[in-house]
């Protein structure tokens, strides 16, 4: 019997694959593809990566699915979260869709995956009106491939710079001194090293987070690796300049020694001092995504106030977009669910309150963004109440934060739009990780990257 709530969630993809074997399907199969599915009346299946807004229990994505399920006129939906493994979400989703063994309907994709999935025929074109709801322009564009709509922005993302007010004060510094720098490397170079607390923590573990940090360093000094069509256009000279800026950011006298093994969660734990048992440990500055805001409010020790400023230089645009599986037998209902999750201001506002950056302009409550003076955006201090909030509690968004976040998003840079982006990212981070780990040669790294990145973006494996 089908339940209305539909909240059962699979934590491991193979469990869903086993379930989907019993799904009915009919029709003569096309060569090389599984047979077409028929609508057997089952709930919609929404597949997504782990919800980082939830420390324990259900996160905001499940809460939004529950809100959809509360309306009896809607076909019930259930959320399936893919495992948090290194590259596992991407590879397992690709394998499941290509094999036809998973009966997915709505896919919550990283924005950089959309060209790859569209080119491979794994997602279907959508009604163009789904992208007309007043989204951040860059986020909406990320859902298009070859001038067709394939995905709709669910939440977007942008790199921000968080600061510990208590540790700034100990250094005799003010939040205003974090503003007005052309690049992050410039900011870090102007602060002393060798202090009691590391100055900076970011994500330099060899995964997508490292790619993002590299691209932000490159963009900040005017280095462009691709053209508007995702084709390689770099040079060894430009690569050397970008790598030199990255090494300025990764100054060993100022960077936390844990940065080279840190992902987003690891950076958070180092910033708060959790890895060393709490205060007085911790790091002064941290680059992270907007979701970190609620986590910091819940995990920093009492007296350790924090705040946030725009990331100096260029910040990468991130986020997830919702697409419909090419094999879905429930595509019309899937599009209705996507519209509910993305175009309803109340749904998107809940994302903001939970720590995500909504893609919908109306969720920010800032009026016409064209009237915002982003040059006047200043540091936003986060007021904290004593004690740890109750599990699941969400504190009010502080004044000025929606404006800061929207301005940062409008100025953010999208990563290259190419079906070969995963290969590009792998080659980039492999070489840079080796440079950082072995104190290698900038010249040699630039030479190898110049060859490998061009091959990767042409769809050819590097030798």
TrEMBL record:
It holds the Pfam family SBP_bac_8. Keywords: Signal, Transport. The keyword Chaperone does not apply. Residues 1-23 form the signal peptide. The keyword Transport applies. Belongs to the bacterial solute-binding protein 1 family. This is Extracellular solute-binding protein family 1. The lineage of its organism: Bacteria, Bacillati, Actinomycetota, Actinomycetes, Kitasatosporales.
């Amino acid at each position: 019997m089908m339940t209305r709530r539909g909240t059962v969630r699979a934590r491991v993809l193979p469990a869903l694959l086993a379930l989907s074997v019993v799904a009915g399907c009919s029709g003569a199969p096309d060569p090389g593809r599984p047979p077409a599915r028929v609508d057997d009346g089952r709930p919609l299946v929404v597949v997504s990566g782990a919800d980082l807004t939830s420390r324990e229990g259900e996160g905001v994505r499940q809460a939004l699915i529950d809100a959809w399920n509360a309306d009896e006129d809607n076909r019930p939906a259930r959320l399936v979260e893919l495992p948090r493994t290194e590259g596992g979400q991407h590879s397992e989703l690709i394998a499941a869709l290509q094999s036809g063994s998973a009966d997915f309907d709505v896919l919550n994709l990283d924005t950089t995956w959309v060209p790859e999935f569209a080119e491979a025929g794994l997602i279907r074109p959508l009604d163009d009106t789904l992208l007309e709801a007043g989204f951040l322009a860059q986020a909406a564009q990320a859902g298009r491939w070859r001038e067709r709509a394939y995905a709709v922005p669910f939440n977007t993302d942008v790199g921000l710079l968080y600061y510990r007010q208590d540790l700034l004060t100990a250094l005799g510094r003010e939040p205003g001194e974090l503003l007005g720098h052309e690049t992050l490397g410039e900011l870090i170079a102007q602060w002393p090293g060798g202090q009691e607390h590391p100055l900076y923590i970011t994500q330099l573990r060899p995964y997508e987070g490292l790619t993002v940090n590299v691209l932000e360093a490159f963009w900040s000094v005017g280095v462009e690796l691709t053209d508007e069509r995702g084709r390689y256009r770099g040079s060894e000279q430009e690569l050397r300049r970008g790598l030199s800026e990255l090494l300025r950011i990764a100054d060993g006298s100022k960077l936390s020694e844990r940065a080279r093994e840190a992902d987003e969660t690891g950076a958070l734990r180092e910033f708060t001092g959790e890895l060393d048992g709490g205060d007085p440990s911790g790091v002064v500055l941290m680059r992270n995504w907007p979701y970190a805001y609620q986590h910091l409010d819940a995990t920093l020790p009492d007296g350790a106030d924090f705040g946030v400023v725009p990331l100096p230089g260029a910040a990468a645009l991130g986020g997830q977009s919702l697409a419909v599986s090419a094999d879905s037998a429930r595509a019309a209902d899937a599009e209705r669910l996507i519209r509910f999750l993305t175009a309803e201001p109340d749904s998107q506002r809940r994302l903001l309150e939970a720590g995500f950056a909504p893609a919908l302009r109306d969720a920010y409550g800032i009026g016409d963004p064209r009237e915002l003076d982003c040059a006047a955006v200043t540091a936003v201090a986060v007021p904290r109440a004593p004690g740890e909030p109750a599990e699941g509690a969400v504190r009010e968004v502080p004044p000025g934060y929606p404006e800061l976040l929207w301005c940062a998003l409008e100025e953010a840079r999208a990563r290259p739009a190419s079906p070969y982006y995963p290969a590009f990212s792998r080659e980039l981070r492999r070489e840079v990780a080796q440079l950082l780990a072995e104190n290698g040669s900038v010249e040699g790294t630039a030479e190898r990257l110049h060859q490998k990145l061009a091959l990767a973006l042409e769809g050819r494996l590097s030798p």
